[in-house]
Amino acid sequence: MRLLLSALLITFGLSFHASADEALSLTPQETYDLVQTQGDQMLFIDVRDPVEIMFIGFTDVADKNIPFMLADRSKFLSDKGRFAMHPNPDFTASVEQALKDKGLSKDALIVTMCRSGSTRGKPSADFLLERGFTNVKYIDHGFQGSSSKEGKKAGMRIVNGWQNDGLPWSMTLNPEKIYQP
Question: Which residue stretches, if any, does this entry annotate as coiled coil (predicted)?
Fold first, then answer.
């Protein structure tokens, strides 16, 4: 009963947010609970680059991996110690197709998840809101969570997020869900 009540409250909260300019967050547990109770009425997408997923892991609870940003392996940013990231030109069309495949409209709940929640999760949700999708949220702290600030594990992502909340994930990737341009 508590699970159903939580899902209803989250759903009603989402409907009041439909006209806002900025996406609101859900916890990993709230998202998992929504997928369990309303999975056929929503779209849950992992917006990380597929190569990142290959090294960090994936949850098959997500409907699809549709990257918001793609790593440009031809441009290494020496000052940042990483490859440049560029917007996925197929992001919006891929989200629309995933909704269509589930028989859903642009008004259906969409939840996005990246590694930490802030660099692609929230921006991808805001991006979709700006393009006419009306019910978009993102997972706060994303898949891997925040870094520990102190101790032997300082700098390691062990504080929160999908993995650290004990939700289902694996290093085995589902080829039917992973983005393959």
Answer: none
